[in-house]
Amino acid sequence: MRKELKQWARDKMRESRPSPVSVTLVYVLITGAMQLIVPLVSVALVGFSVLSYWLTKGYELSQIILYYLGAGGATALGFANILVGLLIEVISFGYISYCLLLLRDRARGTSNLSDGLGMAGKVILMRLITGTFIFLWSLLLVIPGIVAFYRYRMAPYILLDNPDCGVLESIRASKALMKGHKAELFVFDLSFLNWALLYAVPFLVAEILERAGIPALGGVVVTWLGAGLVSLWVTPFVGVSQAAYYSNLTGGGYRIADYGPGDTRDRHWDN
């Protein structure tokens, strides 16, 4: 089944317009730029030379900010960082929507990245609840945390197919849907390990350049550029393949109205 689902994803990516690579580029640029907001503000407030000096002395960024901006400034930047992280979660939810709609020949392109904005409250609450559950299970042992992660894995897709349902309802539906399939999805994820190893290639090249006496900045550029180029193909391929797994598991989509409370029926679709 894994081979067929991946081929399905490849075929849909090949047919899709605009190209998934271009949509992923926009997604990576947006989320990457958002991740730079707080660090750039920190540099502007403290000063690049000051930050560089203390960082080379072994101090953590948080320690430097606390010293120069005080508790109030450090708290404000920490709060801003949390807000940015939550907004990135909403944009990432939009990317999941894009991958699912691409599979269904209904993707609009980069505008799908905003699909989560209309239900931002639900998206954030869902991430907070599932993240808390996974964290609590992880306190016991690593394996229960992994099991919890896969238990709630389908919640974003279910929420996309049922935007009017509650957050807890979509989480419970994911728990029921994944009963007996967690190990299957785990193995499916492992099948992408060879693609993930491609990310190591730019780092190896950077190491070779450094040993050859090329300045460190050159290695950094090679690393970021190489990893970025790899992600432009791997990210949509993995995303669409995971959407294909969900569609195969549910028969093309999950409708909560079709299921009674506690109903865990399997709904397979052999595409």
From TrEMBL:
Record bears the keyword Transmembrane helix: yes
Entry keywords, A to Z: Membrane, Transmembrane, Transmembrane helix
UniProt-recorded name of the protein: Glycerophosphoryl diester phosphodiesterase membrane domain-containing protein
Transmembrane spans: 21-54, 74-103, 124-150, 185-205, 212-234
InterPro entries on file: DUF975 (IPR010380)
Natural source organism: bioreactor metagenome
